[in-house]
UniProtKB/TrEMBL annotation:
Full protein name: ATP synthase subunit a
Membrane-spanning intervals of the chain: 20-38, 71-93, 99-119
Complexes and interactors: F-type ATPases have 2 components, CF(1) - the catalytic core - and CF(0) - the membrane proton channel. CF(1) has five subunits: alpha(3), beta(3), gamma(1), delta(1), epsilon(1). CF(0) has three main subunits: a, b and c.
NCBIfam families hit by this protein: ATP_synt_6_or_A
Gene name linked to the record: atp6
Keywords linked to the UniProt accession: ATP synthesis, CF(0), Hydrogen ion transport, Ion transport, Membrane, Mitochondrion, Transmembrane, Transmembrane helix, Transport
One Pfam family cited in the UniProt record for this chain: ATP-synt_A
Keyword Transport: yes
CDD domains in the record: ATP-synt_Fo_a_6 (cd00310)
Superkingdom classification of source: Eukaryota
Compartment annotation: Membrane; Mitochondrion inner membrane
Length: 224
Protein backbone atom coordinates (compact mmCIF):
# COMPACT_ATOMS: atom_id res chain seq x y z
CA UNK A 1 0.00 0.00 0.00
CA UNK A 2 2.71 2.47 1.03
CA UNK A 3 4.87 1.51 -1.97
CA UNK A 4 2.05 2.11 -4.44
CA UNK A 5 1.14 5.34 -2.66
CA UNK A 6 4.51 6.94 -3.37
CA UNK A 7 5.05 5.56 -6.89
CA UNK A 8 3.57 8.75 -8.36
CA UNK A 9 6.56 10.63 -6.91
CA UNK A 10 9.16 8.26 -8.39
CA UNK A 11 11.07 9.90 -11.26
CA UNK A 12 12.34 6.53 -12.59
CA UNK A 13 10.77 4.79 -15.59
CA UNK A 14 10.75 1.16 -16.79
CA UNK A 15 14.12 1.84 -18.43
CA UNK A 16 15.65 2.43 -14.95
CA UNK A 17 16.33 6.02 -15.94
CA UNK A 18 14.94 9.20 -14.38
CA UNK A 19 13.21 10.25 -17.59
CA UNK A 20 10.15 11.49 -15.72
CA UNK A 21 12.03 14.73 -15.08
CA UNK A 22 11.37 15.54 -18.75
CA UNK A 23 7.77 16.29 -17.71
CA UNK A 24 9.15 19.62 -16.46
CA UNK A 25 9.21 20.79 -20.07
CA UNK A 26 5.82 19.41 -21.13
CA UNK A 27 4.22 22.82 -20.56
CA UNK A 28 6.51 24.37 -23.18
CA UNK A 29 6.07 21.50 -25.66
CA UNK A 30 2.29 21.48 -25.46
CA UNK A 31 1.96 25.19 -26.24
CA UNK A 32 1.59 25.43 -30.03
CA UNK A 33 3.66 27.98 -31.90
CA UNK A 34 0.41 29.56 -33.13
CA UNK A 35 -0.21 30.66 -29.52
CA UNK A 36 2.67 33.12 -29.73
CA UNK A 37 1.82 34.39 -33.23
CA UNK A 38 -1.96 34.50 -33.65
CA UNK A 39 -3.96 36.49 -31.06
CA UNK A 40 -6.60 34.32 -29.37
CA UNK A 41 -8.59 34.24 -26.16
CA UNK A 42 -6.14 31.99 -24.31
CA UNK A 43 -3.12 34.08 -25.32
CA UNK A 44 -4.97 37.25 -24.25
CA UNK A 45 -5.75 35.75 -20.81
CA UNK A 46 -2.17 34.57 -20.29
CA UNK A 47 -0.75 37.91 -21.45
CA UNK A 48 -3.09 39.68 -19.01
CA UNK A 49 -1.88 37.46 -16.13
CA UNK A 50 1.78 38.09 -16.95
CA UNK A 51 1.15 41.82 -17.31
CA UNK A 52 -0.53 41.92 -13.88
CA UNK A 53 2.37 40.01 -12.32
CA UNK A 54 4.87 42.35 -13.97
CA UNK A 55 3.12 45.38 -12.44
CA UNK A 56 2.96 43.78 -8.97
CA UNK A 57 6.62 42.76 -9.02
CA UNK A 58 7.58 46.25 -10.21
CA UNK A 59 5.72 47.75 -7.24
CA UNK A 60 7.55 45.41 -4.84
CA UNK A 61 10.90 46.32 -6.37
CA UNK A 62 10.12 50.05 -6.45
CA UNK A 63 9.12 50.04 -2.76
CA UNK A 64 12.70 48.98 -1.98
CA UNK A 65 14.22 51.44 -4.49
CA UNK A 66 15.28 48.59 -6.76
CA UNK A 67 15.43 48.98 -10.52
CA UNK A 68 15.50 45.94 -12.74
CA UNK A 69 13.61 43.57 -14.94
CA UNK A 70 10.87 41.29 -13.64
CA UNK A 71 11.24 38.73 -16.44
CA UNK A 72 13.15 36.28 -14.22
CA UNK A 73 10.42 36.22 -11.55
CA UNK A 74 7.56 36.08 -14.07
CA UNK A 75 9.33 33.18 -15.82
CA UNK A 76 9.82 31.48 -12.44
CA UNK A 77 6.09 31.81 -11.74
CA UNK A 78 5.23 30.36 -15.18
CA UNK A 79 7.57 27.37 -14.77
CA UNK A 80 6.26 26.44 -11.32
CA UNK A 81 2.63 26.99 -12.34
CA UNK A 82 2.95 24.74 -15.40
CA UNK A 83 4.53 21.94 -13.36
CA UNK A 84 2.02 22.24 -10.52
CA UNK A 85 -0.94 22.12 -12.88
CA UNK A 86 0.35 19.32 -15.09
CA UNK A 87 0.97 17.20 -11.99
CA UNK A 88 -2.79 17.14 -11.39
CA UNK A 89 -3.32 15.14 -14.59
CA UNK A 90 -3.13 11.32 -14.36
CA UNK A 91 0.21 9.66 -15.08
CA UNK A 92 2.15 12.94 -15.26
CA UNK A 93 5.11 13.25 -12.91
CA UNK A 94 5.09 16.34 -10.65
CA UNK A 95 8.67 17.62 -10.52
CA UNK A 96 7.78 20.35 -7.99
CA UNK A 97 6.92 17.65 -5.43
CA UNK A 98 10.66 16.90 -5.12
CA UNK A 99 13.08 18.92 -3.00
CA UNK A 100 15.78 18.40 -5.63
CA UNK A 101 13.70 20.48 -8.05
CA UNK A 102 12.48 23.18 -5.66
CA UNK A 103 15.90 23.57 -4.02
CA UNK A 104 17.47 23.83 -7.48
CA UNK A 105 15.22 26.84 -8.06
CA UNK A 106 15.47 28.47 -4.59
CA UNK A 107 19.13 27.93 -3.64
CA UNK A 108 20.86 29.53 -6.69
CA UNK A 109 18.52 32.53 -6.47
CA UNK A 110 19.21 33.03 -2.76
CA UNK A 111 22.97 32.56 -3.19
CA UNK A 112 23.12 35.07 -6.03
CA UNK A 113 21.14 37.62 -3.99
CA UNK A 114 23.39 37.16 -0.95
CA UNK A 115 26.66 37.32 -2.89
CA UNK A 116 25.53 40.42 -4.77
CA UNK A 117 24.29 42.11 -1.58
CA UNK A 118 27.36 41.40 0.56
CA UNK A 119 29.79 42.46 -2.19
CA UNK A 120 28.01 45.62 -3.38
CA UNK A 121 25.99 46.72 -0.34
CA UNK A 122 27.85 45.41 2.71
CA UNK A 123 26.72 48.23 5.03
CA UNK A 124 23.10 47.80 3.98
CA UNK A 125 23.25 44.03 4.55
CA UNK A 126 24.79 44.51 8.02
CA UNK A 127 22.08 47.05 8.89
CA UNK A 128 19.43 44.43 8.01
CA UNK A 129 20.75 42.19 10.78
CA UNK A 130 19.65 44.66 13.46
CA UNK A 131 16.07 45.97 13.05
CA UNK A 132 15.53 49.65 13.77
CA UNK A 133 14.67 50.40 17.40
CA UNK A 134 16.25 47.25 18.84
CA UNK A 135 17.51 47.74 22.45
CA UNK A 136 21.33 47.49 22.72
CA UNK A 137 21.12 44.45 25.05
CA UNK A 138 19.11 42.49 22.48
CA UNK A 139 21.29 43.33 19.48
CA UNK A 140 23.54 40.20 19.70
CA UNK A 141 20.44 37.97 19.86
CA UNK A 142 18.78 39.81 16.97
CA UNK A 143 21.90 39.34 14.82
CA UNK A 144 21.76 35.57 15.50
CA UNK A 145 18.02 35.39 14.80
CA UNK A 146 18.23 37.45 11.59
CA UNK A 147 21.25 35.42 10.38
CA UNK A 148 19.42 32.14 10.94
CA UNK A 149 16.26 33.45 9.26
CA UNK A 150 18.35 34.50 6.25
CA UNK A 151 20.12 31.14 6.00
CA UNK A 152 16.91 29.06 6.09
CA UNK A 153 15.14 31.12 3.42
CA UNK A 154 15.91 28.80 0.46
CA UNK A 155 14.94 25.81 2.59
CA UNK A 156 11.59 27.32 3.58
CA UNK A 157 10.86 28.29 -0.03
CA UNK A 158 11.62 24.78 -1.27
CA UNK A 159 9.92 22.86 1.57
CA UNK A 160 6.76 25.01 1.42
CA UNK A 161 6.25 24.28 -2.28
CA UNK A 162 7.17 20.59 -2.02
CA UNK A 163 5.03 19.93 1.06
CA UNK A 164 1.94 21.55 -0.47
CA UNK A 165 2.29 19.55 -3.68
CA UNK A 166 2.89 16.24 -1.88
CA UNK A 167 0.04 16.74 0.62
CA UNK A 168 -2.60 17.32 -2.04
CA UNK A 169 -1.44 14.46 -4.25
CA UNK A 170 -1.30 12.02 -1.34
CA UNK A 171 -4.81 12.96 -0.23
CA UNK A 172 -6.20 12.47 -3.74
CA UNK A 173 -4.38 9.13 -4.07
CA UNK A 174 -5.57 7.86 -0.67
CA UNK A 175 -9.18 8.71 -1.44
CA UNK A 176 -8.93 7.19 -4.92
CA UNK A 177 -7.57 3.89 -3.55
CA UNK A 178 -10.59 3.44 -1.28
CA UNK A 179 -13.09 3.47 -4.15
CA UNK A 180 -13.16 -0.32 -4.68
CA UNK A 181 -14.16 -0.84 -1.03
CA UNK A 182 -17.20 1.45 -1.12
CA UNK A 183 -20.84 1.04 -2.04
CA UNK A 184 -22.36 2.75 -5.06
CA UNK A 185 -23.79 5.58 -2.92
CA UNK A 186 -20.45 6.23 -1.22
CA UNK A 187 -18.63 6.16 -4.56
CA UNK A 188 -20.85 9.00 -5.81
CA UNK A 189 -20.01 10.92 -2.65
CA UNK A 190 -16.31 10.13 -3.15
CA UNK A 191 -16.41 11.53 -6.69
CA UNK A 192 -17.88 14.80 -5.40
CA UNK A 193 -15.19 15.01 -2.70
CA UNK A 194 -12.47 14.23 -5.25
CA UNK A 195 -13.72 16.98 -7.58
CA UNK A 196 -13.78 19.45 -4.67
CA UNK A 197 -10.23 18.46 -3.71
CA UNK A 198 -9.10 18.76 -7.33
CA UNK A 199 -10.50 22.30 -7.44
CA UNK A 200 -8.71 23.09 -4.18
CA UNK A 201 -5.46 21.65 -5.51
CA UNK A 202 -5.78 23.78 -8.65
CA UNK A 203 -6.05 26.86 -6.44
CA UNK A 204 -3.08 25.67 -4.34
CA UNK A 205 -1.02 25.24 -7.55
CA UNK A 206 -1.60 28.88 -8.49
CA UNK A 207 -1.11 30.22 -4.95
CA UNK A 208 2.15 28.32 -4.35
CA UNK A 209 3.64 29.46 -7.66
CA UNK A 210 2.65 33.04 -6.81
CA UNK A 211 4.05 32.83 -3.26
CA UNK A 212 7.37 31.40 -4.50
CA UNK A 213 7.76 34.17 -7.10
CA UNK A 214 6.68 37.00 -4.74
CA UNK A 215 9.03 35.89 -1.94
CA UNK A 216 11.90 35.59 -4.42
CA UNK A 217 11.17 39.14 -5.58
CA UNK A 218 11.13 40.41 -1.97
CA UNK A 219 14.42 38.65 -1.17
CA UNK A 220 16.04 40.22 -4.22
CA UNK A 221 14.78 43.70 -3.30
CA UNK A 222 16.29 43.44 0.19
CA UNK A 223 19.87 43.34 -1.08
CA UNK A 224 19.67 46.81 -2.67
Amino acid sequence: MMASLFTSFDPSTNLSMSLNWLSTFIGIILIPSVFWVTPCRSSFIWTKILSTLHKEFKILMASNKMNGSTIMFVSLFSLILFNNFLGLFPYIFTSTSHLSMTLALALPLWLSFMIYGWINNTTHMLAHLVPQGTPPMLMPFMVCIETISNIIRPGTLAVRLTANMIAGHLLLTLLGNTGNLMSLYLINLLIVVQLALLTLESAVSIIQAYVFAVLSTLYSSEVN
